[in-house]
Amino acid sequence: MREAAARTLGRVVLGALLLQGTGSRAQERRVDYAFSPARHLTAICFPVDWQKTVVTETGALAYDFGPGPYTRPLTEVSMGIRGEELAHGMPAIADPRFPAATVDLAGGADTIRVTAFALPGTDRTPPANTFMQGRIRRLGGLNGAPGWATPPPGCDPAFRNAAWGTNRPILYRVRVPAGSARRVALGFCEPYKGTRNQRVLELRVEGAPPMTIDALKDSVKNTPYVYFFDARDANRDGEIAIEVHASPQGNDPNVVLNAFWVFPAAATITPGEVIAGKGAKSAEIAWSCGLENELGARASRIDGILARITAPNGSPTVNVKTHRLLSFDEASGSLGEGAHPFVVAHPRPVAAEHDGDTWHLLLPAGTREAQVYILAGGDTRVAARRLPDLRAALRDAGMYWKNPGLLPFGHIAVPDAGIQYVLDASIRNFYQIAEQVDGLFQFQPGPSVYRGLWMHDEAWDVVTALALGDTASARRVMETALTYQLPTGQVFASEPFVMLRETPLTLYGLSRYTVATGNADWFRRRFRAVSAAVSWIRTTRARTLADPGSATYGLFPPGFTDGGLGGLAAEYGTTYWSLSALRWAARAAASVGEDDSARSWNRLAADLMASFRAAARRDERRDESGNLYLPMRVGDTSATALPQQANWGMIDGQAFGHLFPYDDPLLNGTLAMLDAHMAEGIHMDVGWVRGGVWPFLTADEGIVQMYQRNYAKAEDFLYAVANHATPMGTWLEEQLPKAAGTRTGGDASDATASSLFIILLREMIAAEHGDTLEILGGVPAAWYAPGSHIALTGVVTDFGPVSLDCRVSPDGNTCTLTAGCAREAPGATLRVVTEGLRDAGFAPVDGTAPGQAANAPLAAQVKFTFRKK
């Protein structure tokens, strides 16, 4: 079985030419996960699932992620043999469209094969965000971590749990009689940060002065603190707002709130009494934060581990490592929180041992098969009484995932089984990480620390959804982004530092969607919001025009950069995205007859480009190899900053805005500088992890290389990125090269990496170049093997939905190509790039010289034939 899985996943030896990056179109490339990280997580949850279950490389199911330690689960459920250390084999998902993860465990003669998956249920409605009969609302997402902190004995257990937000606030609303007053207490207990000034929080309670606190006030971890506010419903809307925001005074933008209590306005109670639990007895509301996902779920979500066991020398166990306060019920053999089962095993455990933070549930001797259920949300007592057989549930789950209408599989097909596997796994992961928040749909970068809305990723995600023919999700996510638009036109979501490019990112996404879909009515209905965003870009840039001597003259004020640079700084990322957004907005405006706006916005883009060129001439540098490049910081005078640090901005500008001519010296010098700093075929030292590689940045540059028509380099990047995926087809955001260690950064089961891999592969088959759609440019010669098939079906390009079918005859002598656009595209050209075909030995039958492009008007259907020379 393992050999069969290896063939399915395309696990073969990686050619040395890939490592060297020679750029030969004819070289043989393979997907073998040679650089897969040692530790990783892969989502096995359902699309748009409130329970973001992930499986580890050892086959353990992982839960309870908090704002530190990042991407480290506080709860893991795994199989074992009592008293033995089991080694794990390579994890696998046999069908990338069905996330049932299988891992083999072994210790001597004892072996366990575990298969972990989520059980399909009848109700996966997103959890409600109102609680206590509507007395409490939580807005902006329900991220939380049960058992995050361990306060001293005798403390209110409410301090153990925590709501959290990454680059976004925690927002609660408490219902009270309109205009009334209350005394509110907020409770904090920090178990992660080790020094002061790391997690500095700004507490805002309606009607009271704001307060800035350090979560580690006395530099002692797991110490509870309580802060009181004399609150009042100042706006008389019948609610008191309770909010926690990150303070710019701290070093971590991730916020927490462990608990809050609401007392009558005249209540007399001390912090010590609240900490000791007296607040829970006398408060009108006593709320332990961070449990809202499970509390709001209408029905229980169930994950399963089906284990096949051979243990002649030992006793099998179910191991539950957790910070939750659990107890073992001998009558039912379940492990739970009070009367609510959390882990149930069949056969029933005969005993339980508690060792530190781990429970060991001992299964009967001679157990050959174990079925383990993890229950979350809803009434788990009810769910535990009607658990299905996991063998039948596994079949049902397979049928669920293979429903043709579930996800947009099948829009891109390639003949390399390894690349197709990673593509389909990427599509699955992309939608698994998405979420419904406050009734609105959003794509998200990751399932743990980056579980939330990031406007930068959403701009990419719109392009990804279009590449999969999913225009509805592209539209919905842009509608979600617009809910963050302020009356000034600015889009503001990320805190505490203002990310100025959020506004142009949103403007770009909705404009690109409009051009690609031709949804003119939708754009017209949002034209006021579009115009407001452009006006905000104009007026924000105008703030820099008052001082011609400023480094930012004609560009933008300082903002938050991210992607390798923290704090506030004058940076070029906002300029690149504003240029892209203005050009696309002008194109969208012209498409709906708003010609005056289109001309005005194009003039603004031209003025901004002129200012950029002047600043770039001042700031450009050469690296140690003589490559001309532009640092990310405006007016950068640093002598120690790495040339490549956070230097993703120009990549984005060319990949998604096509801002520069193909032969632009600064663009090509910056690309050469980035490509001079690589390890394992991936760009190094660009992001947050020093000495680390960043796979999805390399996919981003691969998109640029496709536009630059450096096809062989794009192919190298595609395979290098694929070989940094886990064997289950997902990525970490950043990781050290294998020879350097196992440190990682960002999120795991990273959906942004999935997103950019999908875009890169689509661009390699069909890429827009102005008024031309170039097809087959990035297709390797090896993909034209006998019987091979390359296809796009309903992929939405800037010219509308495009389909393509390229087939090589079984004898390998003929290649037929049919391509077309479902929407009229006057003046547009279809260009077939035949370099890969030439290298595979094919020539067009019309007598065109081998290697030259075959051109035709972009129409409903165009046919070409190529034969072996």
Characterise this structure.
The chain is an alpha+beta fold. It is 27% helix and 28% strand. Strands 5, 6, 7, 8, 22, 24, 25, 26 and 29 form a 9-stranded antiparallel beta sheet that branches. The chain has a 7-stranded antiparallel beta sheet with strand order 1-2-3-4-23-28-27, with no helix packed on it. Strand 7 (98-107) and strand 8 (110-118) form a beta hairpin. Helix 8 (417-432) crosses helix 20, helix 9 (455-467) packs antiparallel against helix 10 and helix 19 (711-722) packs antiparallel against helix 20 (751-765). The longest helix is centred in the C-terminal third of the chain and has 25 residues, at 595-619. Mean pLDDT is 94; it is low at 1-23.
% residues in beta strands: 25-35%
Low-pLDDT runs of 5+ residues are 1-23
The number of distinct β-strands equals 49
Largest sheet: 9 strands, antiparallel
Outline: globular
Rounded to the nearest angstrom, the radius of gyration is: 28 Å
Number of helices, where a helix is a run of at least 4 consecutive DSSP H or I residues: 21
- Overall pLDDT score: 94
Distance between the termini: 41 Å
From the helix content, strand content and strand pairing, which structural class follows? Answer: alpha+beta
Q: Indicate the percent of residues in helices.
A: 25-40%
